[in-house]
Design a protein that fits this description.
The protein is mostly helical. Helices cover about 65% and strands about 0% of the residues. It has one domain. It has five helices and no strands.
Length: about 120
């Protein structure tokens, strides 16, 4: 089973969304855009009140990335008792992973797009 690459997919999603907005002139402006707008955008993190994807797809992403889900849970201090006890758990874990990786993906894009900033 091939691993779902969260970083690659998130990077592509961020680039596509910023392309639709227009790229800021500086890395600082890009960072602010990411922190103020993209962080809570369901199409990037699933952190805006909805989810990034449906339960079936999220279950597949999580099943291919269990160690990453555990790492994200540990980093954010999430205990399993606080997760939903139904299929929504997959969407919650998917959003958790996306939030966990968000800063690193943004930093990678900044380094590529704004190397002098």
């Amino acid at each position: 089973m091939e691993e779902y690459n969260y970083e690659k997919n998130m990077k592509q999603d961020i680039i596509e969304l910023v392309n639709s907005y227009g790229w800021p002139e500086t890395g600082g402006e890009f960072y602010d855009m990411c922190e103020n707008e993209l962080w809570a955008d369901d199409s990037i993190t699933g952190n805006g009140g909805g989810y990034y994807d449906n339960i079936v797809n999220c279950a597949e992403y999580i099943s291919r990335n269990l160690p990453l889900a555990i790492e994200a849970m540990n980093d954010f201090g999430v205990e399993t008792k606080n997760l939903p006890r139904d299929d929504r758990i997959y969407q919650h874990l998917d959003s958790l992973i996306r939030c966990y990786l968000f800063e690193g993906v943004v930093a990678d894009i900044m380094n590529e797009r704004y190397p002098e900033d």
